[in-house]
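In this supplementary section we document a worked example of the pipeline. Step one takes a protein sequence of length 308 as its only input; no multiple sequence alignment statistics are reported here. Step two produces a three-dimensional model, which step three serialises into structure tokens for compact storage. The input and output of this example are shown verbatim.
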Amino acid sequence: MRKYLYSENGFVEKPQWEPGCWVSVECPDNDDFDFLTRQLQVPESFLTDIADVDERPRTDTEGNWLLTILRIPMQSGRADIPFITVPIGIITSDDVVVSVCYHRTEMMDDFIEHTRRKGIRVNNKLDLILRLIYSSAAWFLKYLKQINNVVTEAENELEKSIRNEDLLRLMKLQKSLVYFDTSIRGNEVMIGRLKNIFQDTDYLDMGLLDDVLIELKQAVNTVNIYSDILTGTMDAFASVISNNVNAIMKRMTSLSITLMIPTLIASFYGMNVHLHVEDYPHAFVGIVAVSVLLSAATFVWFRRIKWF
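The serialised model returned by step three reads:
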């Protein structure tokens, strides 16, 4: 799916491509590939590089074309990891600006809507790249808040938890934080490369560049803080689960000992030998009463030493 977007007061969608338009392509199909490679003459090698889900942030050139690959966050919809990062490639030449992402993300639609809502005019290709990095940092922070909310919920369940599933859920979030940290740092390195590429041009807006760097540094610091919190929570979770299991086993052992006393007495009196009390009319009641008293005494003793 592709959109032709022209920057006025925010991006306005056009029915067809015009020079100077931004072509936003998500989940490209064969028709999109034909349009990019035949009509716009985009190098096929660039499209192949962007398709690699593990591609790191970098730049590449081929003739007059410049490829800039960034990492942006998205919800994975997978059970093993809730949030991941995916590559997006911005391919530019003199009058062509194309972004290609092989995944459908919330960020792109939000970015377009944000420029319309704020009336932001994107002046050139570097301006677009920097604003996309800025938007990715904002979405990193948004997903980090969601991760922090999950960790907070887990902390509330920490005291009574004995399930490994709770610990595994936190481990999945830890994976997301590792992806986030690597991607944000990669995007931060890209800022320096872009600055060197466009340093002697009119494209470089130092004010916007500083804003993007500040937002990225905030995202990096937030990732580090949440990662430390999550690591501490996971350690506490493991200790609490172990302690809760030990407490349950202690109670079960105490209960077994308490119930063993009447069982032991009944076993003795179930032997086929002479026990000297079988002639008493209330022998059964007396034996049961003694068993109950001994069990009660054992229970009180265990309560006093806090085994129950």
